[in-house]
Amino acid sequence: VDTTRATDRDTEARRALWGSALGYAMDGFDLLILGFMLTTISKDLHLTQPQAASLVTGTLVGAVVGGVVFGMLSDRLGRVRVLTWSIVLFAVFTGLCALAQGYWDLLAYRAIAGIGLGGEFGIGMALVAEAWPASKRARASSYVGLGWQVGVLAAAIATPILLPAIGWRGMFAIGILPALAAYFIRHSLHEPEVFVARSKDRPKE
After folding, report:
1. Apex CA 174: angle with CA 129 and CA 38, to 5°?
2. How many Cβ atoms sit within 10 Å of the Cβ of residue 171?
3. pLDDT tens-digit readout, 43-91
4. 151, 21 in Cβ contact below 8 A?
5. Would you give the DSSP letter of residue 102?
6. Full DSSP string of 18-84
7. What value, to the nearest 5°, has the Cα angle with vertex 182 and ends 176 and 187?
8. CB burial of residue 86 (10 Å; 0-12, 13-18, 19+)
9. How far apart are CA 144 and CA 128, in angstroms?
10. Closest CA to 83 of 134, 20, 34
């Protein structure tokens, strides 16, 4: 029985690692393709240089807000559930960027997508930290961080190939795909035992 439980915990820990690393990869991919596409977007939507730069700033501001808000929600409602919400939010509003007709709606979409991005960033690392034993936690966390580098590398390879073919709107439309990752995470992961135990001990308000 103990061996079976240990195997189940190892499986859950690996799934948490893969799910969190995937979230980090999506974050890295999204931010880098935005940087690559700013010139093209600016020409198409007739943006000034400050407006184009503010699209990145808006995303990062949203990420800070998302990190705080989704972090607090995940403490109350569960890591996996709130991580799923953050990925769906990120995916939907990244996809909506493909429909933007001007500066203000694109800025709004980017900022809200950034909220989801920030949620992924913080919750993913917390999920891994709670799912892995202390002796392996540092190594597992470093692997999650590598997800960002993989996403950046994927963006650097994919953007020069895809952007001329599908345009900046098509690139943002690809951002809907992370919603599939949310489905995988929601249906294959369970809350870490550490979180479940802490939730049971928390006094009800």
Report:
1. 95
2. 25
3. 999 999 999 999 999 999 999 999 999 989 988 888 888 888 888 898 8
4. no
5. S
6. HHHHHHHHHHHHHHHHHHHHHHHHHHHHT--HHHHHHHHHHHHHHHHHHHHHHHHHHHHH-HHHHHH
7. 145
8. buried
9. 8
10. 20
Residue 183 neighbours by CB distance under 10 Å: 13
Say whether 188 sits in a helix, a strand or coil: helix
Q: Please write the tens of the pLDDT for every residue from 82-105.
A: 888 888 898 889 999 999 999 999
The alpha carbon torsion through 37, 46, 61, 69 (nearest 10 deg) reads -90
Q: What is the pTM of this model?
A: 0.84
| Residue 1 reports pLDDT greater than 80 | no
The Cα 24–Cα 185 span in angstroms is 13
Lowest mean pLDDT among 9-23, 112-126, 191-205: 191-205
Measured CA to CA, the distance from residue 205 to residue 167 in angstroms comes to 51
Taking CA atoms, 153 is separated from 23, 135, 175, 203, in Å, by 15, 30, 16, 45
Angle between helices 134-174 and 103-131 (to 10 degrees): 160
Amino acid found at 169: R
Residue 114 phi, psi dihedral angles, 5° rounding: -65, -35
Which two structure tokens, joined as six digits, stand for 124?
Answer: 């993913």
